[in-house]
Amino acid sequence: MTSLSPTDLAIRYGFLLLMAGMIVVFSLLKPAFLSPQSAVFILQSVAITGILALGVTATLVVDGFDLSIGAVATSAMMLSAYVMVIWEMGALTAVVLCLLMGAAVGLINGFLIVKMRVPDLLATLGMMFLLVGLQRIPTAGNSISTGMVLADGRTATGTFAPEFLMLGRHRIDFILPDLVPLSVVVLVVIAVLTWVFLELTRHGRVMYAIGSNAQAAALAGINVAGYRVLAYVISGVMASLGGILLAARLGRGDVASGNNLLLDSVAAALIGFAVLGAAKPNAFGTAVGALFVGILLQGLTMLNAPYYTQDFIKGAVLVVALVFTFALSGRSGRARR
Amino acid sequence: MAAQSITVRGLTKAFGRNIVLRGVDLDLPAGQVTVLMGANGAGKSTLVKILCGVHSADAGEVRLDGRPFAPSGPAAALRQGVVTVHQNINDGVVPDLDVASNLLLDSLADGSGLFLNRRQMRAEAERIADAVGLKIDVTRPVAGLPLADRQLVAIARAMAHRPRLLILDEPTSSLSLAEAQRLFSLIDRLRQDGVAILYISHRMSDIRRLADRIVSMRDGQVSGLFEGKPLDYSGAVRAMLGHEITEVDITIPPPGAPMFEARGLRLKPEAQPFDLVLRRNEVVALTGLVGSGKSALAEVLYGIAVPVAGDMRLDGAPYRPRRPAQAVAAGVFLAAKDRLINSVIPQFDIQQNLTLPFTARHSGPLGLIRRAAERAAAERTIAAMGVVCQGPRDGILTLSGGNQQKVVVGRWMAEASRLLILDEPFQGVDIQARRDIGRRIRESALDRATLVLCAEIDEALEVADRILVMSEHTIVGAHRNESIDLARLMAEVAGAADRTKEPA
Prior knowledge:
The complex is a heterodimer of chains A (about 325) and B (about 500). Chain A is mainly α and about 325 residues long. Chain A has 14 helices and two strands; from the N terminus they run ααααααββαααααααα. Chain A has one domain (about 15-330): ABC transporter involved in vitamin B12 uptake, BtuC (Orthogonal Bundle). Chain B has 18 helices and 20 strands. In chain B, strands 6-7-8-3-9-10 form a six-stranded mixed β-sheet, sandwiched between helices. In chain B, about 45% of the residues are buried.
């Protein structure tokens, strides 16, 4: 082992130290911050942004970006509510349709970027606007809940299936009774799967190669276009899964919810670059980044900081994380090219 | 004797430890076209960049009409009458603006006044366009013009500065024959007007049409000056390529059965078709000038491009790859040139770079990579290629250029292939790495056909059993690598324009 200089140490452990420091400060200011209830709250909010962030990580790995994840998630929320409340179908149908919708959006994003040569930021930005509008058309802009009055005067009588609501609300006994929300279990499973896929399989390896030098990857016989599309499909499916969890937690299709999903999950994925000095998108870093954002928001909420202050601090933290990644580490192939 | 427009004496330039120009002496007389030839890395583009003010020289002196000339930047060079039209045409024009704005761009950039007088601009622009014989509606946007017109706009824009020296860097590389003719007649007019012209090109047909003098460069020095009629074109090419007979002696093994056969292969619509047979246990080098079609052939063989015409067979079966993945699956591998652009994955370590094309061979169910097998394969290649490193997990960018090259070449030798194509495998490596790579290519050649593309004849002589010469996108010569007639080989590299008809 070679010894590490102070700069190396700062790059490698700086963000973990910052997170520990944040927990200490919040605990001193608000002792309730350390309570199990607060931890559960953090984990629950982390679950949805974390899953979205893991999806966006897949697109970052191939040197792309997906701005449509927030809109895909809220679309999935509205779709699942529509399926169960208005069409009166079951939980399984709702989940399957949402995941298919996410995959379809990912395919379209990939098609626009790979075949139509639209720059990734613009293609997914357009898709975001499109979905934000589309998800409101069926209900003329109204939220969906049981008992709502439809356009033709009928009353919606369908209800959210209990097994669907479990996804967002059920808690598992873990040391304390009713401690760990089911959605957090989903997050952990997804995070482990993403980590294994990106770090341990040849597909992940090849995707990192594409992100680092797409031309060289293509000349090595790799199907660059196919893997790019795959990354957007992964992102779309993960985002729709996040939307399902959101719907299950709220128990309604709420047009006002999910506005912060994009910022929070992109911040988590980009903060992930700085964790352990990886200087590249990675699943572990993204999970830690999501936890970081969750702790920050919970702490600020408990200190009664208004939402705009929270947005400001999130943005500032994101900028600091990017400085960590690109300026200090200086070994990012991406930043140098 | 024409007046000396530009004189260069003892020009020296280094980038870090890399010495690019080693005391260049050069005269560019007014009213004459001086053609500058030189292989990649000979120092041509550095010389041009000093003349047009992009770089400043470390030592030596440039005089323009007798006065010292040391421009502080491209704009200063332009003001003093040194005009450069770059290879990449879009460097010289702003595609989104109309022709008139482009022609007047320099005066717009440093002119005074806030508002544009459209009518006055248009009249001025038409006068400038007329001066170079460009008949065109000056209100059209440049983006909508054909390539040749864009280039004329770039030249016309430059001509507004009453140039003393016009530098043209490979100006015909993207022009059709008719468009090139238009450019040539413009050059003739400027020559009569007493402008000194420095013309950089490898196209022998252009050079025969235009050159009054030829200057050859090699390794940062002028290696030959050719004047008077008739010009010694072969001598100029020889001076540019140079050659030292190296002590490598090749034992040519008995050639095996044909592995790859092409019949009537045509790489460009206007190129002559050719046949190509590559055998097992045979290393064939393909040499030729920049732009002679070597890389175009590699692209066809590797499924990046489709030939205009012709049949290809690999190991007896029809072969027509549409993607590199299909070529690799058929056993045709390409180690590409320009490793930092085409081969190296900068974020990966040596091991990951080595196994990149063959991750499927090192992974089990669900695509999980078998780390131990991967590492063992990497260590075998590191040993076989003689890569100097601490271990397979070192970052690729921590290696020297020669060792990086061993990694990206070794990548394709780790698995058995039917046809291995190596495009400039000795590019940017030191002599030891060059020997190591060449030895490894030869000792592993038994069961495959091997095609090495190299512009340097020395390299071809060091590595090949047979040397093919390419020119104007066709094969113009074949030599068995023993007691080679170097003069003839050089003439084939240079004189292929004899075979095509001279432009009228």
